[in-house]
Amino acid sequence: MGCAVAITLLIAVATLIVTRLLYVLHRTGKPHKPSSSKGSAPQPLSTLIVLGSGGHTAEMINLLSVLQRDRFAPRFYIAAATDNMSLQKARLLEENADESSSSQFMQIYRSREVGQSYFTSVLTTLTALAHGLWLMIRIRPQILCNGPGTCVPLCVIAFIFKVVGIRWSSVFYVESIARVQRLSLSGLLLYKLQIADQFFVQRPQLQKKYPRAHYVGCLM
Question: For residue 161, which phi and psi values (nearest 5 degrees)?
Fold first, then answer.
């Protein structure tokens, strides 16, 4: 009798999880509707901006320079623990805009260093997930990213938050303009697993190959 009850409960929980997962996958890709009072302006979105070494940060800084910054506040800039240059550029951007008071700068463990073996990257990815989980629980933001590997654990955590009902932390992904024929590894993961709520590409070839992506032209 007890075994039958346990099996029934297990099936019920599994059914609930699968139902919620299907709902989240159905909602993914739908326009985000910030909560606001009728007739009032939309509330600002607490936003986590993921920076990456090399061209990732340069492209993100260019993207941020044309956004409605008051819609994305407060802003939390995050970069890998070994990447100090990206945060310096972000600080300079905020100082020039005289809005540094509405932004914070943080670092996170990198999932995988350039050239690191996939075997050893399993441990570093788990470490990054644990660190990212602590950050996401603390600030519960929307996520804006454009491809650095650092973004993947954070986006996975945001997806899990949606499935378990903690918070609908939307993921906005902008693929690098350098990607012409195929997505980056980070982009491919977020696209195939349907983790990104909105997926943008800057090349028409990519939109034809990945139809759920939105072609927005050159943003740089």
Answer: -55, -40
> Is the pTM above the cut of 0.70?
yes
Residue 212 has what DSSP assignment? T
Residue 215's H or E segment, with its range, is: strand 214-215
Domain boundaries, the chain: 46-215
> Any idea which architecture 46-215 has in CATH?
3-Layer(aba) Sandwich (3.40)
Tens of pLDDT along the chain (220 residues) come to: 668 777 877 888 778 877 877 777 777 766 555 555 555 566 788 999 999 887 899 999 998 888 887 888 899 999 988 888 999 999 999 988 776 567 899 998 876 666 677 777 778 778 888 888 998 998 889 999 998 888 988 999 999 999 888 888 899 999 999 999 999 999 999 999 999 999 999 999 999 999 999 999 887 6
